[in-house]
Amino acid sequence: MIKKIPVSELKAGMCVADLDSTVWRHAPYLYTSPGFVRQEDLERIRASGCLEVFIDTAKGLEAESGEISDEERLDRLLQDPGAREWNAAGLRVPMHEELPRAHRKYKAVLDCARRIAESLAARRPLVPAEAEDAVEEVIDSVVRNPGALLCLSKLHKYDRYALTHSANVCGLAVLFGMFLGLTRERLLDLGLAGLLHDAGMVLVPQEVYSRRGPLSRDEMELVRAHPAHGRRLLTEAGGFPQAVLRAVAEHHEQYNGLGYPQGLRGDQISQAGRMLALCDVFDAMTSDRSYMKAVAPSKALAIMYGMRGQNFVPGEADLFIKCLGIYPPGSLVRLNSGDLAVVYGSNPNKPLLPLVNVILDRRLRPREPRLLDLAAVPPDDQGRPRLKIIECLNPLNYMFDLRRLLGVELVPA
Ligand SMILES: [Fe+2]
């Protein structure tokens, strides 16, 4: 299990996790050099000013006896009546019906994100009503089928990460807000905040934003100021609710006070700001970029589980995981039969055995799509699942567009 702990609790023999991700590189107090910690390293690490570190308990000291897999750990968390109820209500409109519509809505949100970015860069006024219309469409899609938009967002790599990230965080924030039972008015605020959360990045040069190597102190300060710049730019643009502006300003704050730019802690951070932080980290981790490989959704959720009490309010991180399930819709998975499938919906009683659409055989040959409820497959003689998920894969590693195999007629970019 990957777990975030204070540096003060770091011991020789622990293994600093290799997260293969730059999501946290702007975190001011995070120690990130992977590998086993030696006694002689401890003083240096503590003197570096870092206050937090991710450790991999499966490799180093403090490996818990009877270690269970990340998926099993999440499975236990999901044995909760509230999560079951949500997942059971999950498929109001069947996935195959909503996917084509969700595809058009997703394109519309992407277009909106692009126009906003271009207007901000050119210092042209924004049209809040246009953004509101796009978010309203997202809400409608999520009401019809909570997983369809999320499913599409993870099956294809678009060229401009900043735009897809804005659209994805918008969709995730609406989905999470709906899971929490928020009113439509608050869903609209949340969706807008998701769409606009990185508006301040328009002031950060692309070269700085996408560099894998270290940033200078000035560059780092510029990046860390983007939530405050975003709030200022959107305030100047006019027409956005205060709740949206505040959430934008707070999306990199942390529960333990070690976030930025203000170092707010606990409930000094608005609920919308805390929700955006969860959506932002999840999408950033599960997105593929030229300088950063995506982490599988189930792995990302397991890592976020280990960030409870540090970055996130423990109960709220649990709720986010419950909202998405172990294998969120759109996860590409390999079954023990060798076939590849896309997750369509969670099973409220057996989260490890979701509803999937089998699309490729073991040799990656497209096959007639087949909806399969893994929980309904008869178990083997010992009562163990005969057909189960053995691996979560990165859909972006495949050279063809998986959305076509799901029957989605693609709208040209
Ligand atoms: Fe950000």
Using brief descriptors, characterize the structure shown.
413 residues, alpha+beta, Hypothetical protein af1432, 3 domains, 11% strand
Question: What's the main sheet like?
Answer: 5 strands, antiparallel
Quickly give the CATH architecture of the largest domain: Orthogonal Bundle
Low-confidence stretches: none
Q: Work out the count of structural domains.
A: 3
Amino-to-carboxy terminus distance: 40 Å
Query: Which value, in Å, is the CA radius of gyration?
Result: 21 Å
Structure annotation, total helices: 16
The ordered string of helix (H) and strand (E) elements is EEEEHEHHHHHHHHHHHHHHEEEEEH
The CATH homologous superfamily of the largest domain is called Hypothetical protein af1432
The percent of residues in helical segments reads 40-55%
CATH class (first level) name of the largest domain = Mainly Alpha
